[in-house]
Amino acid sequence: MKEIRRKSSSTKSLKAAGRPKKNRRAELLSLAKAFGIKNRHRMTRPQLIQALESHQKKSRISKPTRLRAKPARTVPTPTAIRPKQTYDDLPWSYGETELVLMPVDPFLIHAYWDFSPEDWKKVRRRRRPVVLRVYDVTMIRFDGTNAHSHFDLPVALEAQNWYVPLWSAEKSLCADLGWPRPDGSFETLVRSNGIQTARSGVSIFEEARWVEVRWDRQKASRLIRRKSTGATPRPAFWPQLEKQAAGMTGEAAGDLSSRAIGTKTPHKTPA
Amino acid sequence: MPTGYLSLVLHCHLPYVRHPEHDYFLEENWFYEALTDTYLPFLEVFEGLVRDGIPFRLTLSLSPTLIAMMADPLLQTRYLRHLDRLIELSEKELDRTRRQPEFHAVARMYHERFSQSRDRFQNRYGRNLLPAFRRLEAEGVLEIITAAATHGYLPLLGVRPFAVRTQILAAVDYFHQSMGRPPDGLWLPECGYHPGLDTALREAGIRYFFVETHGLAYAQPRPRCGIYAPVYCPTGVAAFARDIESSKQVWSAEEGYPGDYDYREYYRDIGFELPMDYIRPYIHPDGIRINTGIKYYRITGKTNDKQVYHPPRAIEKAAEHAGNFIFNRQRQVEHLASTMDRPPLLVAPYDAELYGHWWFEGPEWINMLIRKLACDQEIVELITPSDYLEKFPVNQESTPSASSWGNKGYSDVWLNGRNDWVWRHLHKAARRMEELVNQYPNTGGTTRRALNQAVRKLLLAQSSDWPFMMKTGQQSDYAVKRFKDHVLRFTRLADEIESGSVDEGWLKELEERDNLFPDLDYRRFRTG
Hints:
The complex is a heterodimer of chains A (271) and B (528).
Chain A (H helix, E strand, L loop, with lengths): L1 H6 L17 H10 L10 H15 L38 E8 L2 E7 L2 H9 L5 E6 L12 E6 L6 E5 L6 E9 L5 E6 L3 E2 L13 E7 L4 E6 L11 H12 L22
Antiparallel strand pairs in A: 1-2, 2-5, 3-4, 3-6, 6-7, 6-8, 9-10
Chain B lengths: L3 E9 L16 H23 L6 E5 L1 H7 L2 H24 L4 H24 L5 H9 L3 E6 L6 H4 L3 H19 L6 E2 L9 H7 L4 E4 L1 H5 L13 E2 L5 E4 L2 H8 L18 H4 L2 H4 L31 H27 L7 E7 L10 H14 L4 E3 L2 H7 L2 E4 L23 H19 L5 H17 L3 H8 L3 H24 L4 H10 L15
Parallel strand pairs in B: 1-2, 1-8, 1-9, 2-3, 3-4, 5-7, 6-10
Antiparallel strand pairs in B: 6-7
């Protein structure tokens, strides 16, 4: 998956974002798993594609197909938003316009949004589809116009959330929902929070600054003294450590987050 | 001076599960099983080591929800009832297996184990294990730290910094009230870290935390000592990284010790194997078969034809594995020490419930490990993070990379198609709570009680256990129900506070039901 994301070079548009460019069997299998397609492991690549297509037709999944499946939810129309909370079930909307980004991993972010009833009316009145514009604002103070680059992603607004695959890590990002204008500018309906995606490898900065911290337990306070600075040689264990760290973040990485409680099955069963 | 140091960290956490409204509640068994399988055996091992004069230093992270459950009289009483039923079942098992000597020996082991657990829990510890852990800390063998208040996954809660700050401050305050001193370290739930989190830790007076291997390997600037020494974040809070080699030897399904064929098989419990008429009084009242804790077989191999468990042989194997673990750590530190200007530090954190609950012989492995480390060699020495920082106060300054110990190393486990819907509600609730806290800077009476309870509800909804269970599909319905209940009750409380019409009867009911963090004061979380 990462390979595919990295191959994408254009930052101007990502028409097929969310759809693997080359459907490898492993990716098809993971999609099939997400959609609960049975006997998927016995299928060949063409059979998997057929099964996924027929599933799409059946479930009327809006295109583009997302990399990650969401639980199927009945999405009520905005008019069905309850004016008053009844405490029976969580509301579909809180009636406030907002767009929130969260990083999933260095190459994937998640966006969710909500609108006020007025904004719902506004987006419905407009015939043009709303797009999610994602800005790369790494190391700048973003004023709405000075992003390093951006890409637009058509989204199904009623889904209220979207996964956005990326092709480079360690970026500061923010996003707008709105409408692109013919002159290249953007009519913003709502702007998101800013996020930072994680680094996906070892840092290129090697300058070492050593610090002495003296801790006073009674006061829970610290005395920090900056010591020396300067680049230092890299010890011989680094190549091995780099390999181990990469193993922690790969597709085949083990899950060590299990909560070994009750009858829950741990990810790594002893047997 | 030893060639290298080993820091064993046992992270003890369970979600807050307490249902006074039901006489029997299946999910409460998680706590009872953990007491019998893990925490009581830990205390027995540590007290035995102290009694025998074995010097050791070990770090124990007790999550605030677990502390609250340990201190709760209702759960204490129910645990005794649970043990009574187990003792009764084990007595019946003694009779049932009397003509099968191999099975009978195992049945006797369980009978003695349950009876001793009851005796120690009731008579020795007065139903509360916390003072026993405190005594061990006073003996100088344990360093007890805590985790975020309800084990909230902080990188994703971080969209609202208020939520992160509340998780940390509530945890530190509750730990202080329960243990008599503030914690030096804080276990970041799921080792979830994102740059900037250390600012909230520093505000709460935290000295150190732990990150996953790549959290430090990918830190910036690149740490010269890799993951074999801590770094200081720009705030002066120290970050220690997990050593993957020592972790894998215990965790891994393929290479890990717990899969040894002589160890007890977890998945062959009499709750699923014996006739319903016989086992019915000891399973779920509705006739749902559950684990009872009595298991007669050893892993044997990749076969369904399991052999009978042989406790002495399994104990022998645990000792052998402890020796093997030490041998590997010795070679590891010798190799690393040749390339470093200080003794390397290996940090080995584990979910405590792995020991005893999943890996039945785990506590005995820890027992043998500590004894062998203390008596048989001088190359590797046990150390706690605080001791290490006292010995080596000079460390490199660096900012760890965002990371977690979940699958693929980031937030995928807690943010995916099965659980992504929870975050909008959590963020909304956190924002609303922040507004309320700042709107009522110093109120009293019923409104204050309602605000305190709203914070408790918010914290309970934030537990990382709910999205985790939704992701795995195990007890997913329960997780969804708990999450929704907490958010909906929070919303109703917030609505009532805002409208000035708090239903006092309902508030009292909530206070009795979700009674954790009794001294929590919402004013502590003011930001405005």
